[in-house]
Amino acid sequence: MKNINQPTDKRRPDGRVVALEAERRTLRALHRFGWLRTRDIAALVHTKWAPRPAAEPGLSAVVATESALRMAQRTLRRMRESRLVLFAQGPDGSTLYALAEPGVRALRALGIDASTGKDSMRGISGGYYRHRCVANEIAIAGIVQGLRVSTEREIAQGLWVGGEAGIAGKRPDVLWRNREAWDWIEVQRSRPNAKDYERLLAWLRHMLAVHTRPGAQIAEGARLRKIVFVGNTAFGARLLRDLRDKRVDESALVGLLSFSHSLYKLDPIKFC
């Protein structure tokens, strides 16, 4: 009699095929983000993605498992030996990875118009580094939760739905898309200068006014679900106060704007 508990003939995938796929996914990730840390690659490449987004996705960074970190380390070690990636040390001591020329050629062979990440890792200041790390973590969180995401690098290159011009003349740091509902995310480490701040207020007033119109869209078939500011409490309080002083619609203000003050620490990096 046949043992019904006997496992069916499900062969384990060839380890070489699995390793090659991990390398390809890592190359694609570096193409989209510019540069990433080991923990970022573990969270993005070696973590299972949700099949569909939750009704209320969260901003919290994806914490990779120890297994995912080990797999990322092994993959990156092979890629360094094959010269597929460049590596450098970030201001906090983390190792950063970007595309090297052989990695670029590998992606172009797959039909992806990639470019080397050499310039993106030159002269990284502490403030810029922390800003990009936070933006990358938010983008990765969105991807893992099943959202369509535009990264900070893609947006800076005009490779997103808003193109070079942006939407109403502005571009976000990260964009999350769940079908027609978009979340516009700004990482605001410090208060902008007076001119930039006035531009931000003017843009927000415009978007809040659009939000109050029935059926209003910010792009074809798309509506803005939230504008999220990730930054310190003082900046958020001032922004709300100044918008209220300009008599914006309170229901739109409460419904559209969101602030995250505790998920990420945006303190200056301490150099060792």
Structure report:
- The protein is an alpha/beta fold and 272 residues long.
- It is 42% helix and 15% strand.
- The chain folds into two domains: 16-124, Arc Repressor Mutant, subunit A; 147-272.
- The protein starts with 14 loop residues before the first helix and ends in a 12-residue tail after the last strand.
- It has a five-stranded mixed β-sheet with strand order 4-5-6-7-8.
- Helix 2 packs across helix 3.
Overall morphology: elongated
Which percent range fits the helix content? 40-55%
Q: Mind telling me the C-alpha Rg?
A: 21 Å
Beta-strand residue percentage: 15-25%
Set down the secondary structure blueprint:
Layout: H1 15-33, E1 36-37, H2 38-45, H3 66-81, E2 85-89, E3 95-99, H4 101-109, H5 126-144, E4 148-150, H6 152-156, E5 174-178, E6 181-188, H7 194-211, E7 223-231, H8 233-245, H9 250-256, E8 257-260
Parallel strand pairs: 6-7, 7-8
Antiparallel strand pairs: 1-3, 2-3, 4-5, 5-6
Helix pairs in contact: 1-3, 1-4, 2-3
Can I get a quick summary?
This protein has 272 residues and is of the alpha/beta class. It has nine helices and eight strands. It folds into two domains: 16-124, Arc Repressor Mutant, subunit A, CATH 1.10.10.10; 147-272.
Considering the chains and any ligands shown, give keywords for the structure:
272 residues; 8 strands; five-stranded mixed beta sheet; Arc Repressor Mutant, subunit A; 42% helix; elongated; alpha/beta; 9 helices; three-stranded antiparallel beta sheet; disordered N terminus
